[in-house]
Fold this sequence. Notes:
The complex is a heterodimer of chains A (479) and B (275).
Chain A: E1 24-26, E2 29-31, E3 38-42, E4 49-54, H1 58-75, H2 80-96, H3 98-109, H4 113-134, H5 138-141, E5 147-149, E6 152-156, H6 162-175, E7 179-183, H7 190-202, E8 209-211, H8 216-223, E9 230-234, H9 237-246, E10 253-257, E11 263-266, H10 272-284, E12 296-300, H11 304-316, H12 336-352, E13 355-358, E14 373-376, H13 383-386, E15 393-399, H14 402-410, E16 417-421, H15 425-434, E17 439-442, E18 461-462, H16 467-471, E19 475-477
Parallel strand pairs in A: 6-7, 6-9, 7-8, 9-10, 11-12, 11-16, 12-15, 14-15, 16-17
Antiparallel strand pairs in A: 1-2, 3-4, 5-19, 10-18, 13-14
Chain B: E1 10-12, E2 15-17, E3 24-29, E4 32-37, H1 41-60, H2 63-79, H3 81-90, H4 95-115, H5 119-123, E5 125-126, E6 133-141, E7 144-148, H6 155-167, E8 171-176, H7 180-191, E9 200-204, H8 207-216, E10 222-225, H9 233-242, E11 247-250, E12 264-272
Parallel strand pairs in B: 7-8, 7-10, 8-9, 10-11
Antiparallel strand pairs in B: 1-2, 3-4, 5-6, 6-12
Amino acid sequence: MVDWQYSESIESPDIVSIKKKYTNYIGGKFVEPKSKKYINTISPSTEELLSKVPLSNEQDINSSVKSAKEGFEVWSKLTPNQRSRYLFKIARLIQERSREFAVLESLDGGKPIKESRDFDLPQVAANFFYFAGWADKLDLSWATKSLKPYGVVGQIIPWNFPLLMLAWKIAPALATGNTVVLKPAETTPLTALLFAEICEQAGLPPGVVNIVTGDGSTGSLIVNHKDINKIAFTGSTQVGKLIQNSLAGRDVGLTLELGGKAANIVYEDAAIDQAVEGVVNGIFFNQGHVCCAGSRLLLQESIHDQFVKKLEKRMQSLRVGNPLDKNTDIGAINSKEQLDKITSLVNEGVEDGGELFQTQCELPGNGFWFRPSLFTNVQPSYSIAREEIFGPVLTTLTFRTPEEAVEIANNTEYGLSAGVWTEKGSKILWTADRLDAGVVWANTFNKFDPSSPFGGYKESGFGREGGRHGLLSYLKASS
Amino acid sequence: MIDIKKTYKNYVDGKYVRSESGKTYTKELKNEFYELPLTSRKDVRDTVTSSKSGFNKWNGLTPYTRMQILYRLSEMIEGNKESYIELLVSHGISKQKANKDIELAIENIIWFAGLADKWEQLAGNLNPVSEEYFNISHQNPIGVVFSLSSSTVSLNDLLLSLLPPLTVGCSVISYSEESSVLALKFAEDINNSDFPPGSLNILTGNFENILDDVSKHVEINLVALHREIENNGLKRIQENASSSVKRVVSLPSISGLSSILPYLETKTVWHPKGT
Lengths: 479, 275
């Protein structure tokens, strides 16, 4: 028998030079924070300090909003065709510096280079290209009268797809004529700050894009600023509710892209091997740090045992480790805090009576790691079947009839995404019609495209990002 | 000879009902006193139960059928035009203005009836994704809509507060204060137009009394306010709504395609292409 030795293939980190300390990007300039305070950002795969970024305070937010207001005066007076050209230029620059961004994303966030290089970055560029083309066609986008930009938009984004979420926010906001103050997540600020260099390279007028870093307190200062005209937030449902509450009674637009607990329904007539692949991609993509992750596997009773056996075998082949290794399937958990949350929910699942399968693999000594995990023998009332775990943990439930599958799938306050696996077309359409979910993946999962609207029903938020529908998140109907 | 005066009741689940509280408030029109239902918290809860099942029935119909039921409503109002004009005149509105109001109302029903089987073609589309996938965005109605009608006494305004959500398949709880007699008279035409029970429920009373109950109720999916709310009421509604990420729209557009957009959820479906 051949003894296959594993040989790693490490992407060189040399392509990116990380500064010891970063500044905010306000009014087209890189400026030290008036707070004079900084926070550390570490690599979750080694726990080594990467850099320090500003912990912005009220003065910093005031000057970024003021700059965005001034930027709006300039940006809104450009012709739509000029705005379009800036976005095209940004898209090209991102393509050119793509590998540098991908490496930095994997270092700062812990995701496998395979994903940052082949998924995140191509999607980032594609989003700027897509919305570049809308900038001068807004009058054709919706058959409604007088759609106008909000003005200054505050954007607060999460740590799971740092640069991609930036693209989802900034590209449509700029295409529709708004200017932005964007705050990246506390644990993944570096690619957003590198993006500021792209804005400079593109010659974007000062104040059109402002990037300020900080923690939750900084985000709250943006939300509560009197001159903000709209807030776009992606993150947890809990924080989304707080933001909605803070904006009560104020004339400020709001779109929310919040949590999920997606059902991935596998009918007995599905192509089983294909479904196993899809289920693995659905939950283990990006360490399961995906709001639309297929975290509730709904199996038709008759195929449960066979499916679980195949799934466990496939899971065992997942490679966990160094994000910069091109072979890595599952990288580091983004932070100690997130690792603790996953661990505690998984422990709760075991105490509740769930049966836990975890893959056997060596984990690196430093950094934050979690083994790919599968729960069977779960009741719908368990926390692991209801709460968003946001980690590589899949929970299995069973059903007998399509009606029951839909009922279980919809029995959650969330409504972001869902999956359906069957070879029968009419069953796909029947099921998709009945699922309360903003995105339904049939015989596939976790597919994204700038032209495809994304966003949730119910407590998964409101508003769409991407596609023609995504434009409406940044335009208001005025009489 | 003494005139016969009509008794007005709430219209819930296809039936005329008094408030369970037994409470009423008085409205004087042309020296007649009308005792109108003062809707209570319990009434709101009962109505939401009806609206939930009404939503399934109404949304379960084909767009073609919904279109015909909405058109039927215009037939009913046309037939009862004189009595509407008389009622508006008794509110102190000139006969000419009243006539115009009813004409406009009928015109708008016709417009929305004809939209019932077209809005999906205007609001949805295929998405040209860069891989071999079929990808379509289409819409679902958001569910149960609570609509506070405007403070004007106008059948046209009342209709424009409930036609956009009804057209796309939502069930509607229409709540009136100032135009309560008109709204409850209108319920009779709803009752005669083949609307499934619970698809459109009509309540009257003092909105301030039920403001918290409505905005906190997790099974009301959207609150549409067609008039300004005094005393920080909008802030309270939005704060309450945030506990369940409920949608609140204040003074929404009532014309064109933008009138229906708040009541829609966009659903995007992907499927691979292959052999």
